[in-house]
Amino acid sequence: MKDYQQLTCEQRYQIYGLRKAGFKQREIANEVGMNKSTISRELRRNRRQRGWRVQSRRRNYEINV
């Protein structure tokens, strides 16, 4: 079975920045070195009506570490 790792805050910021700059999911995946599905899930899970949830994800991560 494959081990899975959570994305780091830096990776999330990088994904968000590339998306905001107009990169497509496939281009982001190539740039970050991840599967396109990972990028797709991350964008879908962390999208709110008013924008990106990186800050709240970071707080949750820090609480759980």
Automatic annotation (TrEMBL):
InterPro entries: Homeodomain-like_sf, IS30-like_HTH. Transmembrane segments: none annotated. Pfam families: HTH_38. Residues 4-46 form the Transposase IS30-like HTH domain. This is Transposase, IS30 family. It comes from Nitrosomonas communis.
